[in-house]
Amino acid sequence: MSDALVIGAGPAGLMAAEELARAGLSVTIAEAKPSPARKLLMAGKSGLNLTKDEPFETFLAAYGNRATVLRPMLEAFGPEDVKAWAEDLGQVVFTGSSGRVFPRVMKASPLLRAWLRRLDRLGVTLKTRWRWQGGGNVDTPDGRVTLAPRVTLLACGGASWARLGSDGAWTRQFAPGDLASFRPANMGFVIDWSDHMARHFGAPVKNVVLKAGETEVRAEFTLSSRGLEGGGIYAVSRAMRDGAPLTLDLLPDLSVDSIRARLNTRPPKESLSNRLRKGLRLDPVKQALVMEFARPLPTDIAPLLKGLPVPHLGPRPLDEAISTAGGLRFEALDDGLMLRRQPGVFACGEMLDWEAPTGGYLLTACLATGRWAGRHAAAFVTG
User: Fold this and answer.
1) What distance separates the 2 farthest-apart alpha carbons in the chain?
2) Which residues have C-beta within 8 Å of that of residue 19, sequence separation ≥ 6?
3) In what order do the strands lie in the sheet with 345-347?
4) What is the CA radius of gyration of the chain?
5) Residue 290 CB neighbours (<10 A)
6) Using CA atoms, how far apart are residues 222 and 205, in angstroms rounded to an integer?
7) Residues β-bridged to residue 143
8) Which fold has domain 4-183+318-382?
9) Model's pTM, two decimal places?
10) What are the pLDDT digits (tens) for 321-357?
C-alpha cells in the first residue's frame, strides 16, 4: 500500500507526486484516462506556453480576485522557477516578443517523457484507467479497489475538454457549499453571422484593440462560422462572460480626427468601400465587420472605427472552453490546500476556484499549486 495517493496525472498531479516522492513517501497516481497529461499534450500541439516573463506583480494581477490567495504559491514557484524546472528536464526554453515562454522544440511530449522518467526513478507508480469514486475507492479495469493511503491529493482538473479527462465528475464527492459553479474561461463567443461573412471565416483580424469593461488588449483574433475565437477574444473573455460589451478599435494607431481627415481626402462620390480601403488601408475583413455591425452607417463613421460595438449571443459551451472558472472553494481549504472537513486530503490545480488568461498563467498556477499541496501533504505525513 502506498503512503500517498494522487488522483489525476495532469501537471498539478504530477508535480504533487514528485514532491511527495522526494519527501521519501511511496506514491501511486490514479489516472482515469489511458495515458497521462492529455490536456498538456493537446496544448503542446500549438506550442507549449509554459509561463510569462514579466514583472511578478504584473504576472500576479492576471489572477484577478484570486491573486492574494495564490501569491505565496506563485512566490514559491513562479515564472523563473518554471523555466528552471523545464530546463532541468532537458528542455531549452526561449522567450518570445510578447514575453511568453516556450520550450525550443515547441512541443509538450519531450518534456512529459522526461518528467515521467524522473517520476519513475523516484519510485512513483502510475496507474491508468483508474477512476476515483470518492474516499479510498477507485474503479480499475479489474474492478473496484479500496485503498487506505496515509494522505490523498486531488488534482482532478476543471470541467472543460471532457474527452481529455477534465469532466468535473469529481464534484459529486463534495457538498454544494464547498463548490463554486463552473463557468467557461478563455472561450469563444457565438455570433449569428449574416451570409456575406462566410467568405471571411478562418480569417484573422489583426492589429486591433479589444475592450470589454476595464480589460483592454491589443491583439488579434479569428472569425469562425460559429463566432469569435483566438487569443484577443480569450484575453477579454472574462469581462465579456460577466456582461461587459465588446468594442473594437480597428485603427489603433490613428485618432478619430486623423481618420476623418484621411477620409475627407477621398472623392465625395467614391464608394464607402473604396474610401475605407484607399483612405485608411482597411483590409477586407475589417470592412466586413463594419458592414456587419455598424448598419445603418452614420454620416461620420470615424468614431465607429475607433469603437465598433460587437453584439454576441454569449460564450461557447463549457466543454469547449480552454479552461474553467469555479470549482472547489478556497474557503473549504486551509493554507496548505488541505480540506478542512477531511484531514489528510489535499487539492490543487484547475479543480480549485481560480481562473487566469492564456499566456502561461494557467500552467504556472497548476504547477505552483501542485507543488504547494504536495509539500504540505508530505509534511502532514512526516511531521
Assistant:
1) 84
2) 370, 371, 374, 375, 377, 378
3) 125-128, 27-31, 4-7, 151-154, 345-347
4) 24
5) 20
6) 6
7) 140
8) FAD/NAD(P)-binding domain (3.50.50)
9) 0.94
10) 999 999 999 999 999 999 999 999 999 999 999 999 9
